[in-house]
Write a structure and sequence with these properties.
CATH superfamily of the largest domain in chain B: P-loop containing nucleotide triphosphate hydrolases
Number of domains of chain B: 2
Number of strands of chain B: 10
Shape of chain A: globular
Helix content of chain A: over 70%
Oligomer: heterodimer
Shape of chain B: globular
Radius of gyration of chain A: 20 Å
Helix content of chain B: 25-40%
Strand order of the largest sheet of chain B: 6-7-8-3-9-10
Distance between the termini of chain A: 32 Å
Largest sheet of chain B: 6 strands, mixed
Order of helices and strands of chain B: EEEHEEHEHHHEHEHEEHH
Number of helices of chain B: 9
Largest sheet of chain A: none
Number of domains of chain A: 1
Number of strands of chain A: 0
Order of helices and strands of chain A: HHHHHHHHHHHH
Structural class of chain A: mainly alpha
Largest interface: A-B, 32 and 34 residues
Radius of gyration of chain B: 18 Å
Strand content of chain B: 15-25%
Protein backbone atom coordinates (compact mmCIF):
# COMPACT_ATOMS: atom_id res chain seq x y z
CA UNK A 1 0.00 0.00 0.00
CA UNK A 2 1.34 3.42 -0.99
CA UNK A 3 -0.02 6.27 1.19
CA UNK A 4 0.88 8.69 -1.59
CA UNK A 5 -1.35 6.97 -4.15
CA UNK A 6 -4.20 6.80 -1.65
CA UNK A 7 -3.68 10.48 -0.87
CA UNK A 8 -3.93 11.25 -4.59
CA UNK A 9 -7.51 9.97 -4.63
CA UNK A 10 -8.32 12.10 -1.58
CA UNK A 11 -6.65 15.14 -3.13
CA UNK A 12 -8.64 14.67 -6.33
CA UNK A 13 -11.85 14.74 -4.28
CA UNK A 14 -10.67 17.86 -2.43
CA UNK A 15 -9.94 19.66 -5.72
CA UNK A 16 -13.36 18.72 -7.09
CA UNK A 17 -15.33 19.76 -4.01
CA UNK A 18 -13.36 22.96 -3.45
CA UNK A 19 -14.13 24.23 -6.89
CA UNK A 20 -17.74 23.11 -7.17
CA UNK A 21 -20.84 24.48 -5.47
CA UNK A 22 -23.00 21.50 -6.63
CA UNK A 23 -20.58 19.17 -4.82
CA UNK A 24 -20.14 21.33 -1.73
CA UNK A 25 -23.78 22.14 -0.96
CA UNK A 26 -25.07 18.53 -0.68
CA UNK A 27 -22.47 17.85 2.00
CA UNK A 28 -24.52 19.88 4.45
CA UNK A 29 -27.79 20.92 2.74
CA UNK A 30 -29.76 17.67 2.99
CA UNK A 31 -28.61 16.80 6.47
CA UNK A 32 -29.40 20.39 7.46
CA UNK A 33 -32.91 20.09 6.04
CA UNK A 34 -33.37 16.77 7.88
CA UNK A 35 -32.27 18.28 11.18
CA UNK A 36 -34.62 21.24 10.87
CA UNK A 37 -37.58 19.15 9.66
CA UNK A 38 -37.23 16.42 12.28
CA UNK A 39 -36.31 18.94 14.94
CA UNK A 40 -39.67 20.64 14.54
CA UNK A 41 -41.49 17.30 14.33
CA UNK A 42 -39.96 16.22 17.65
CA UNK A 43 -40.78 19.59 19.19
CA UNK A 44 -44.38 19.17 18.05
CA UNK A 45 -44.54 15.59 19.36
CA UNK A 46 -43.17 16.76 22.71
CA UNK A 47 -45.94 19.35 22.93
CA UNK A 48 -48.86 17.10 21.96
CA UNK A 49 -47.90 13.83 23.64
CA UNK A 50 -48.17 15.25 27.14
CA UNK A 51 -46.28 12.26 28.43
CA UNK A 52 -43.19 14.20 29.39
CA UNK A 53 -41.14 11.91 27.18
CA UNK A 54 -38.49 13.85 25.28
CA UNK A 55 -38.55 12.82 21.63
CA UNK A 56 -35.45 14.83 20.76
CA UNK A 57 -32.76 12.30 21.70
CA UNK A 58 -34.72 9.29 20.41
CA UNK A 59 -36.19 10.65 17.18
CA UNK A 60 -33.89 13.50 16.21
CA UNK A 61 -30.90 11.53 17.47
CA UNK A 62 -31.96 8.58 15.32
CA UNK A 63 -32.30 10.80 12.25
CA UNK A 64 -28.88 12.26 12.92
CA UNK A 65 -27.21 8.86 13.28
CA UNK A 66 -28.99 7.48 10.22
CA UNK A 67 -28.02 10.54 8.17
CA UNK A 68 -24.43 9.96 9.28
CA UNK A 69 -24.61 6.41 7.89
CA UNK A 70 -26.03 7.76 4.61
CA UNK A 71 -23.31 10.43 4.35
CA UNK A 72 -20.61 7.82 4.93
CA UNK A 73 -22.05 5.54 2.26
CA UNK A 74 -22.51 8.36 -0.22
CA UNK A 75 -19.05 9.68 0.57
CA UNK A 76 -17.65 6.48 -0.93
CA UNK A 77 -20.04 6.27 -3.86
CA UNK A 78 -19.72 9.96 -4.77
CA UNK A 79 -15.93 9.69 -4.91
CA UNK A 80 -16.29 6.57 -7.08
CA UNK A 81 -18.87 8.24 -9.34
CA UNK A 82 -16.36 10.98 -10.12
CA UNK A 83 -14.40 8.40 -12.11
CA UNK A 84 -17.62 7.18 -13.74
CA UNK A 85 -18.75 10.67 -14.74
CA UNK A 86 -15.29 11.75 -15.95
CA UNK A 87 -14.86 8.44 -17.87
CA UNK A 88 -11.59 8.12 -16.03
CA UNK A 89 -11.37 4.35 -15.48
CA UNK A 90 -8.81 3.79 -18.21
CA UNK A 91 -6.55 6.53 -16.87
CA UNK A 92 -6.92 5.53 -13.25
CA UNK A 93 -6.70 1.75 -13.57
CA UNK A 94 -3.83 1.75 -16.09
CA UNK A 95 -1.57 3.10 -13.34
CA UNK A 96 0.31 1.39 -10.49
CA UNK A 97 -2.65 2.21 -8.23
CA UNK A 98 -3.87 -1.00 -6.58
CA UNK A 99 -7.51 -1.71 -5.78
CA UNK A 100 -6.71 -1.56 -2.05
CA UNK A 101 -5.16 1.90 -2.50
CA UNK A 102 -8.09 3.06 -4.61
CA UNK A 103 -10.66 1.87 -2.07
CA UNK A 104 -8.63 3.39 0.77
CA UNK A 105 -8.74 6.69 -1.12
CA UNK A 106 -12.53 6.45 -1.44
CA UNK A 107 -12.79 5.71 2.30
CA UNK A 108 -10.60 8.69 3.21
CA UNK A 109 -12.76 10.90 0.99
CA UNK A 110 -15.83 9.60 2.79
CA UNK A 111 -14.30 10.25 6.22
CA UNK A 112 -13.65 13.87 5.22
CA UNK A 113 -17.07 14.55 3.73
CA UNK A 114 -19.13 12.64 6.32
CA UNK A 115 -17.26 14.33 9.21
CA UNK A 116 -18.20 17.67 7.71
CA UNK A 117 -21.86 16.59 7.52
CA UNK A 118 -21.76 15.26 11.08
CA UNK A 119 -20.44 18.56 12.46
CA UNK A 120 -23.17 20.49 10.63
CA UNK A 121 -25.84 18.14 12.02
CA UNK A 122 -24.48 18.41 15.56
CA UNK A 123 -24.44 22.18 15.38
CA UNK A 124 -28.00 22.39 14.08
CA UNK A 125 -29.49 19.68 16.29
CA UNK A 126 -27.69 20.99 19.36
CA UNK A 127 -28.05 24.69 18.67
CA UNK A 128 -31.66 24.73 17.53
CA UNK A 129 -33.26 21.77 19.31
CA UNK A 130 -31.06 21.06 22.30
CA UNK A 131 -29.89 17.61 21.24
CA UNK A 132 -26.76 16.70 23.15
CA UNK A 133 -24.76 13.65 22.18
CA UNK A 134 -23.63 13.41 25.80
CA UNK A 135 -26.96 11.74 26.48
CA UNK A 136 -25.59 8.59 24.79
CA UNK A 137 -22.49 8.67 26.99
CA UNK A 138 -19.49 6.59 26.07
CA UNK A 139 -21.63 4.49 23.75
CA UNK A 140 -21.59 7.25 21.15
CA UNK A 141 -18.16 6.22 19.88
CA UNK A 142 -19.06 2.56 19.19
CA UNK A 143 -22.41 3.66 17.73
CA UNK A 144 -20.67 5.96 15.24
CA UNK A 145 -17.99 3.35 14.51
CA UNK A 146 -20.54 0.63 13.68
CA UNK A 147 -22.53 2.99 11.45
CA UNK A 148 -19.31 4.19 9.81
CA UNK A 149 -18.10 0.66 9.02
CA UNK A 150 -21.52 -0.35 7.70
CA UNK A 151 -21.74 2.83 5.61
CA UNK A 152 -18.31 2.16 4.11
CA UNK A 153 -19.33 -1.43 3.40
CA UNK A 154 -22.51 -0.35 1.61
CA UNK A 155 -20.63 2.35 -0.29
CA UNK A 156 -18.04 -0.11 -1.58
CA UNK A 157 -20.72 -2.70 -2.38
CA UNK A 158 -22.76 -0.11 -4.30
CA UNK A 159 -19.65 1.03 -6.20
CA UNK A 160 -18.92 -2.57 -7.16
CA UNK A 161 -22.47 -2.92 -8.41
CA UNK A 162 -22.15 0.19 -10.58
CA UNK A 163 -18.80 -1.04 -11.89
CA UNK A 164 -20.49 -4.27 -12.92
CA UNK A 165 -23.80 -2.93 -14.28
CA UNK A 166 -22.69 0.34 -15.82
CA UNK A 167 -23.23 4.07 -15.21
CA UNK A 168 -27.04 3.94 -15.38
CA UNK A 169 -27.16 1.61 -12.37
CA UNK A 170 -26.21 4.47 -10.07
CA UNK A 171 -29.97 4.94 -9.74
CA UNK A 172 -30.00 1.68 -7.78
CA UNK A 173 -27.64 3.24 -5.25
CA UNK A 174 -29.63 6.26 -4.06
CA UNK A 175 -32.62 4.34 -2.58
CA UNK A 176 -30.48 1.80 -0.69
CA UNK A 177 -30.67 3.62 2.70
CA UNK A 178 -34.44 4.02 2.35
CA UNK A 179 -34.80 0.30 1.64
CA UNK A 180 -32.61 -0.69 4.60
CA UNK A 181 -34.08 1.72 7.17
CA UNK A 182 -37.39 -0.11 7.87
CA UNK A 183 -35.44 -3.29 8.67
CA UNK A 184 -32.84 -1.47 10.80
CA UNK A 185 -35.46 -0.10 13.22
CA UNK A 186 -34.21 3.44 12.94
CA UNK A 187 -37.39 5.00 14.36
CA UNK A 188 -39.00 2.10 16.26
CA UNK A 189 -37.97 -1.02 18.16
CA UNK A 190 -37.38 -4.18 16.13
CA UNK A 191 -40.16 -5.84 18.14
CA UNK A 192 -42.61 -3.62 16.22
CA UNK A 193 -41.79 -5.53 13.04
CA UNK A 194 -43.16 -8.86 11.85
CA UNK A 195 -40.89 -11.81 12.56
CA UNK A 196 -39.42 -12.07 9.05
CA UNK A 197 -38.47 -8.41 9.11
CA UNK A 198 -37.00 -8.79 12.59
CA UNK A 199 -34.87 -11.68 11.31
CA UNK A 200 -33.45 -9.43 8.60
CA UNK A 201 -33.06 -6.59 11.10
CA UNK A 202 -30.90 -8.76 13.36
CA UNK A 203 -28.48 -9.20 10.45
CA UNK A 204 -28.06 -5.43 10.14
CA UNK A 205 -25.51 -3.76 12.47
CA UNK A 206 -27.43 -0.42 12.64
CA UNK A 207 -30.37 -2.26 14.25
CA UNK A 208 -28.19 -2.90 17.34
CA UNK A 209 -27.14 0.75 17.40
CA UNK A 210 -30.70 2.07 17.35
CA UNK A 211 -31.94 -0.53 19.86
CA UNK A 212 -29.06 0.44 22.13
CA UNK A 213 -29.72 4.14 21.66
CA UNK A 214 -33.36 3.75 22.71
CA UNK A 215 -32.36 1.62 25.71
CA UNK A 216 -30.01 4.36 26.95
CA UNK A 217 -32.70 7.03 26.58
CA UNK A 218 -35.13 4.90 28.58
CA UNK A 219 -32.55 4.59 31.35
CA UNK A 220 -31.30 1.10 30.51
CA UNK A 221 -27.87 -0.14 29.54
CA UNK A 222 -26.52 -1.26 26.19
CA UNK A 223 -25.66 -4.92 25.93
CA UNK A 224 -21.92 -5.20 25.40
CA UNK A 225 -22.44 -8.54 23.68
CA UNK A 226 -24.85 -6.99 21.18
CA UNK A 227 -22.48 -4.11 20.52
CA UNK A 228 -19.62 -6.51 19.82
CA UNK A 229 -21.92 -8.52 17.56
CA UNK A 230 -22.82 -5.32 15.68
CA UNK A 231 -19.14 -4.49 15.26
CA UNK A 232 -18.31 -7.99 14.03
CA UNK A 233 -21.26 -7.93 11.62
CA UNK A 234 -20.14 -4.54 10.28
CA UNK A 235 -16.59 -5.84 9.79
CA UNK A 236 -17.97 -8.92 8.04
CA UNK A 237 -19.99 -6.74 5.64
CA UNK A 238 -16.96 -4.55 5.03
CA UNK A 239 -14.80 -7.55 4.08
CA UNK A 240 -17.65 -8.93 1.97
CA UNK A 241 -17.97 -5.58 0.18
CA UNK A 242 -14.23 -5.42 -0.56
CA UNK A 243 -14.33 -9.00 -1.87
CA UNK A 244 -17.36 -8.11 -4.02
CA UNK A 245 -15.68 -4.99 -5.46
CA UNK A 246 -12.52 -6.93 -6.32
CA UNK A 247 -14.65 -9.60 -8.03
CA UNK A 248 -16.46 -6.93 -10.06
CA UNK A 249 -13.17 -5.25 -10.96
CA UNK A 250 -11.68 -8.55 -12.11
CA UNK A 251 -14.78 -9.22 -14.18
CA UNK A 252 -14.44 -5.78 -15.76
CA UNK A 253 -10.76 -6.42 -16.55
CA UNK A 254 -11.51 -9.88 -17.95
CA UNK A 255 -14.31 -8.67 -20.22
CA UNK A 256 -12.69 -5.36 -21.20
CA UNK A 257 -15.42 -3.31 -19.53
CA UNK A 258 -12.86 -1.06 -17.79
CA UNK A 259 -11.60 0.14 -21.14
CA UNK A 260 -15.06 0.48 -22.68
CA UNK A 261 -17.16 1.39 -19.68
CA UNK A 262 -19.60 3.58 -21.59
CA UNK A 263 -20.81 0.44 -23.38
CA UNK A 264 -22.22 -0.64 -19.95
CA UNK A 265 -21.90 -4.35 -20.70
CA UNK A 266 -19.69 -6.42 -22.96
CA UNK A 267 -20.49 -9.94 -21.86
CA UNK B 1 14.92 11.68 -42.49
CA UNK B 2 16.05 13.03 -39.17
CA UNK B 3 14.87 10.23 -36.91
CA UNK B 4 17.32 8.84 -34.40
CA UNK B 5 18.76 5.40 -35.12
CA UNK B 6 19.18 2.88 -32.35
CA UNK B 7 22.64 2.04 -31.18
CA UNK B 8 23.74 -1.57 -30.96
CA UNK B 9 24.13 -1.34 -27.19
CA UNK B 10 20.53 -0.19 -26.85
CA UNK B 11 19.31 -3.23 -28.75
CA UNK B 12 20.18 -5.40 -25.80
CA UNK B 13 17.47 -4.19 -23.46
CA UNK B 14 13.81 -5.11 -23.97
CA UNK B 15 11.44 -2.70 -22.25
CA UNK B 16 8.49 -4.76 -23.45
CA UNK B 17 8.35 -8.46 -24.21
CA UNK B 18 5.02 -9.82 -25.41
CA UNK B 19 4.83 -13.57 -25.91
CA UNK B 20 1.99 -15.58 -27.48
CA UNK B 21 -0.55 -12.97 -26.40
CA UNK B 22 -4.10 -14.00 -27.05
CA UNK B 23 -7.51 -12.49 -26.29
CA UNK B 24 -10.75 -14.27 -27.06
CA UNK B 25 -14.23 -12.79 -26.56
CA UNK B 26 -16.70 -15.66 -26.87
CA UNK B 27 -16.34 -16.86 -30.47
CA UNK B 28 -14.22 -13.86 -31.51
CA UNK B 29 -10.44 -14.03 -31.48
CA UNK B 30 -9.40 -10.40 -31.05
CA UNK B 31 -5.67 -11.05 -30.62
CA UNK B 32 -4.30 -14.34 -31.86
CA UNK B 33 -1.05 -15.37 -30.25
CA UNK B 34 1.15 -12.39 -31.09
CA UNK B 35 4.74 -12.00 -29.90
CA UNK B 36 6.95 -8.95 -30.20
CA UNK B 37 9.53 -6.86 -28.39
CA UNK B 38 10.10 -3.15 -27.85
CA UNK B 39 13.67 -2.30 -27.00
CA UNK B 40 15.13 0.64 -25.17
CA UNK B 41 15.44 3.77 -27.35
CA UNK B 42 13.24 2.20 -30.00
CA UNK B 43 9.93 3.44 -31.43
CA UNK B 44 7.80 0.57 -32.69
CA UNK B 45 4.73 1.27 -34.79
CA UNK B 46 1.73 -0.99 -34.29
CA UNK B 47 -0.22 -0.70 -37.52
CA UNK B 48 -3.39 -2.22 -38.83
CA UNK B 49 -6.90 -1.48 -39.99
CA UNK B 50 -9.70 -0.69 -37.55
CA UNK B 51 -10.58 -3.78 -35.54
CA UNK B 52 -7.20 -5.42 -36.16
CA UNK B 53 -6.53 -5.76 -32.42
CA UNK B 54 -4.22 -2.78 -31.81
CA UNK B 55 -6.18 -1.19 -28.99
CA UNK B 56 -6.95 -4.61 -27.49
CA UNK B 57 -3.21 -5.27 -27.42
CA UNK B 58 -2.49 -1.90 -25.84
CA UNK B 59 -5.21 -2.40 -23.23
CA UNK B 60 -3.68 -5.75 -22.27
CA UNK B 61 -0.24 -4.14 -21.93
CA UNK B 62 -1.82 -1.46 -19.73
CA UNK B 63 -3.30 -4.09 -17.44
CA UNK B 64 -6.91 -3.03 -18.01
CA UNK B 65 -7.74 -6.11 -20.08
CA UNK B 66 -6.83 -9.62 -18.99
CA UNK B 67 -5.26 -11.75 -21.72
CA UNK B 68 -6.77 -15.16 -22.40
CA UNK B 69 -3.23 -16.50 -22.77
CA UNK B 70 0.33 -15.31 -23.10
CA UNK B 71 2.67 -13.14 -21.11
CA UNK B 72 3.62 -9.46 -20.94
CA UNK B 73 6.91 -8.42 -19.38
CA UNK B 74 7.65 -4.73 -18.82
CA UNK B 75 11.32 -4.20 -18.01
CA UNK B 76 11.41 -7.91 -17.27
CA UNK B 77 8.57 -7.62 -14.74
CA UNK B 78 5.57 -9.89 -15.31
CA UNK B 79 2.45 -7.73 -15.57
CA UNK B 80 0.17 -10.59 -14.51
CA UNK B 81 1.91 -11.19 -11.19
CA UNK B 82 3.50 -7.80 -10.41
CA UNK B 83 1.00 -5.37 -11.87
CA UNK B 84 1.88 -2.26 -9.83
CA UNK B 85 5.61 -2.73 -10.35
CA UNK B 86 5.19 -3.19 -14.11
CA UNK B 87 2.85 -0.22 -14.49
CA UNK B 88 5.11 2.00 -12.36
CA UNK B 89 7.46 2.27 -15.34
CA UNK B 90 4.71 2.40 -17.99
CA UNK B 91 2.51 5.25 -19.15
CA UNK B 92 0.23 6.02 -22.06
CA UNK B 93 -1.68 8.63 -23.99
CA UNK B 94 -4.69 7.98 -26.17
CA UNK B 95 -7.20 10.27 -27.82
CA UNK B 96 -10.05 8.21 -26.35
CA UNK B 97 -8.75 8.57 -22.78
CA UNK B 98 -8.43 12.28 -21.96
CA UNK B 99 -7.60 13.20 -18.38
CA UNK B 100 -10.64 14.38 -16.34
CA UNK B 101 -12.03 17.57 -17.82
CA UNK B 102 -13.30 18.86 -14.47
CA UNK B 103 -9.79 19.32 -13.07
CA UNK B 104 -7.21 21.87 -14.14
CA UNK B 105 -4.08 20.94 -16.04
CA UNK B 106 -1.93 21.36 -12.95
CA UNK B 107 -4.33 19.44 -10.71
CA UNK B 108 -4.42 16.51 -13.13
CA UNK B 109 -0.64 16.42 -13.39
CA UNK B 110 -0.29 16.55 -9.61
CA UNK B 111 -2.77 13.74 -9.00
CA UNK B 112 -1.29 11.43 -11.64
CA UNK B 113 2.20 12.39 -10.51
CA UNK B 114 1.33 11.25 -6.99
CA UNK B 115 -0.13 8.01 -8.31
CA UNK B 116 3.10 7.37 -10.23
CA UNK B 117 5.14 8.42 -7.16
CA UNK B 118 7.11 10.98 -9.19
CA UNK B 119 10.02 12.46 -7.25
CA UNK B 120 10.30 16.26 -7.03
CA UNK B 121 6.82 16.40 -8.47
CA UNK B 122 6.40 20.18 -8.48
CA UNK B 123 9.59 20.62 -10.50
CA UNK B 124 8.59 17.83 -12.85
CA UNK B 125 5.19 19.45 -13.43
CA UNK B 126 6.83 22.80 -14.17
CA UNK B 127 9.20 21.18 -16.65
CA UNK B 128 6.37 19.39 -18.45
CA UNK B 129 4.17 22.51 -18.55
CA UNK B 130 7.03 24.28 -20.25
CA UNK B 131 7.94 21.40 -22.55
CA UNK B 132 4.39 20.98 -23.82
CA UNK B 133 3.67 24.72 -23.93
CA UNK B 134 0.96 24.43 -21.29
CA UNK B 135 2.12 27.08 -18.83
CA UNK B 136 -0.67 29.50 -19.67
CA UNK B 137 -3.24 26.73 -19.22
CA UNK B 138 -2.04 25.47 -15.84
CA UNK B 139 -5.15 26.75 -14.03
CA UNK B 140 -7.58 25.98 -16.86
CA UNK B 141 -9.89 22.99 -16.55
CA UNK B 142 -8.90 20.37 -19.10
CA UNK B 143 -12.46 20.11 -20.42
CA UNK B 144 -12.23 23.75 -21.50
CA UNK B 145 -9.17 23.17 -23.66
CA UNK B 146 -9.17 22.54 -27.40
CA UNK B 147 -8.70 18.93 -28.50
CA UNK B 148 -5.11 19.67 -29.46
CA UNK B 149 -4.38 21.22 -26.07
CA UNK B 150 -6.02 18.25 -24.35
CA UNK B 151 -3.78 15.94 -26.36
CA UNK B 152 -0.75 17.85 -25.12
CA UNK B 153 -1.99 17.50 -21.53
CA UNK B 154 -2.42 13.76 -22.10
CA UNK B 155 1.12 13.56 -23.42
CA UNK B 156 2.45 15.56 -20.47
CA UNK B 157 0.64 13.11 -18.17
CA UNK B 158 2.19 10.24 -20.10
CA UNK B 159 5.69 11.67 -19.59
CA UNK B 160 5.26 12.38 -15.86
CA UNK B 161 7.08 9.27 -14.64
CA UNK B 162 9.66 9.24 -17.47
CA UNK B 163 8.31 5.82 -18.41
CA UNK B 164 10.44 2.95 -19.65
CA UNK B 165 7.52 1.91 -21.79
CA UNK B 166 5.43 4.63 -23.41
CA UNK B 167 2.26 3.57 -25.20
CA UNK B 168 0.81 6.08 -27.62
CA UNK B 169 -2.48 5.39 -29.35
CA UNK B 170 -2.78 7.87 -32.24
CA UNK B 171 -1.11 10.64 -30.21
CA UNK B 172 -1.18 13.25 -32.96
CA UNK B 173 -4.66 12.50 -34.33
CA UNK B 174 -6.18 15.79 -33.20
CA UNK B 175 -3.16 18.05 -33.63
CA UNK B 176 -2.46 20.54 -36.39
CA UNK B 177 0.56 19.68 -38.58
CA UNK B 178 2.84 22.16 -36.83
CA UNK B 179 2.08 20.95 -33.31
CA UNK B 180 2.10 17.34 -34.51
CA UNK B 181 5.63 17.81 -35.80
CA UNK B 182 6.73 19.30 -32.46
CA UNK B 183 5.17 16.39 -30.62
CA UNK B 184 6.89 13.87 -32.92
CA UNK B 185 10.19 15.59 -32.25
CA UNK B 186 9.60 15.46 -28.51
CA UNK B 187 8.75 11.76 -28.59
CA UNK B 188 11.75 11.01 -30.79
CA UNK B 189 13.90 12.91 -28.33
CA UNK B 190 12.33 10.95 -25.47
CA UNK B 191 13.06 7.65 -27.20
CA UNK B 192 16.61 8.64 -28.11
CA UNK B 193 17.67 10.21 -24.83
CA UNK B 194 15.27 8.81 -22.26
CA UNK B 195 15.21 5.51 -20.44
CA UNK B 196 12.56 3.83 -22.51
CA UNK B 197 10.97 2.66 -25.70
CA UNK B 198 7.73 3.60 -27.40
CA UNK B 199 4.89 1.56 -28.86
CA UNK B 200 3.01 3.84 -31.24
CA UNK B 201 -0.19 3.36 -33.19
CA UNK B 202 -1.16 5.69 -35.98
CA UNK B 203 -3.08 5.69 -39.23
CA UNK B 204 -0.81 8.38 -40.61
CA UNK B 205 1.74 6.41 -42.61
CA UNK B 206 3.84 9.48 -43.34
CA UNK B 207 4.21 9.96 -39.60
CA UNK B 208 4.96 6.29 -39.01
CA UNK B 209 7.65 6.31 -41.69
CA UNK B 210 9.18 9.42 -40.18
CA UNK B 211 9.10 8.33 -36.55
CA UNK B 212 9.18 4.55 -36.18
CA UNK B 213 12.30 2.42 -36.17
CA UNK B 214 10.26 -0.70 -36.78
CA UNK B 215 6.63 -1.48 -37.56
CA UNK B 216 4.35 -4.43 -36.91
CA UNK B 217 1.37 -4.93 -39.24
CA UNK B 218 -1.56 -6.41 -37.37
CA UNK B 219 -4.63 -7.85 -39.06
CA UNK B 220 -7.34 -10.06 -37.59
CA UNK B 221 -5.33 -10.27 -34.38
CA UNK B 222 -2.14 -11.59 -36.01
CA UNK B 223 1.14 -9.92 -36.86
CA UNK B 224 1.47 -10.29 -40.61
CA UNK B 225 4.56 -8.20 -41.29
CA UNK B 226 7.40 -6.73 -39.31
CA UNK B 227 10.30 -4.56 -40.37
CA UNK B 228 11.76 -1.17 -41.17
CA UNK B 229 8.95 1.12 -42.37
CA UNK B 230 11.21 2.59 -45.02
CA UNK B 231 12.32 -0.75 -46.43
CA UNK B 232 9.17 -2.80 -45.96
CA UNK B 233 7.11 -1.40 -48.89
CA UNK B 234 9.87 -2.19 -51.39
CA UNK B 235 10.29 -5.69 -49.99
CA UNK B 236 6.62 -6.35 -50.75
CA UNK B 237 6.40 -4.64 -54.11
CA UNK B 238 4.50 -1.60 -52.88
CA UNK B 239 5.43 2.01 -53.70
CA UNK B 240 4.78 3.37 -50.20
CA UNK B 241 3.92 2.39 -46.66
CA UNK B 242 0.39 3.63 -47.20
CA UNK B 243 -0.05 1.35 -50.23
CA UNK B 244 1.37 -1.53 -48.22
CA UNK B 245 -1.08 -0.76 -45.41
CA UNK B 246 -4.00 -0.82 -47.85
CA UNK B 247 -2.80 -4.07 -49.39
CA UNK B 248 -2.45 -5.73 -45.99
CA UNK B 249 -5.85 -4.45 -44.89
CA UNK B 250 -7.60 -5.68 -48.06
CA UNK B 251 -5.78 -8.94 -48.68
CA UNK B 252 -4.36 -10.09 -45.37
CA UNK B 253 -4.17 -13.73 -46.46
CA UNK B 254 -1.53 -12.84 -49.07
CA UNK B 255 0.80 -11.72 -46.31
CA UNK B 256 0.00 -14.34 -43.71
CA UNK B 257 2.81 -16.77 -44.47
CA UNK B 258 5.49 -14.20 -45.23
Amino acid sequence: MSPQRTAAILLRQFYLIRGSVPRLVPLFAWVGVDMVLWGFITRYLNSVSGSGFNFVPSLLGAVLLWDFFIRVMQGVTMAFFEDVWARNFLNIFATPLSIAEYLAGLVLSSIATSSFGLVVMLLLAGGLFGLSFFVYGAMLAPFLLVLFLFGIAFGIMASGMVLRLGPASEWFVWPIPAIVSPFAGVFYPLSTLPRWMQAIGHLLPPAYVFEGMRRIILGGAVSGRELVLAGLLAMFYLLLACWFFVRMYRHAVRTGLIARYSAETLS
Amino acid sequence: MNQPRRSQTALAADVLAVTNLRKIYGPTVAVDGISFRVRRNEIVGLLGPNGAGKTTTINMILGVLEPTAGSILVQGVDLATHRSQALQCTNFAAVYAPVPGNLTVQQNLRIFGMIYAVKDLSQRIEALLKEFDLEKFRHVKCGALSSGEQTRVGLAKAMLNSPHLLLLDEPTASLDPSVARDIRDMIRHFAAQGPGGVLWTSHNMYEVEEVCDRVLFLSHGKILLEGDPRALPGEHGQPSLEELFIAVAREPLEFRQE
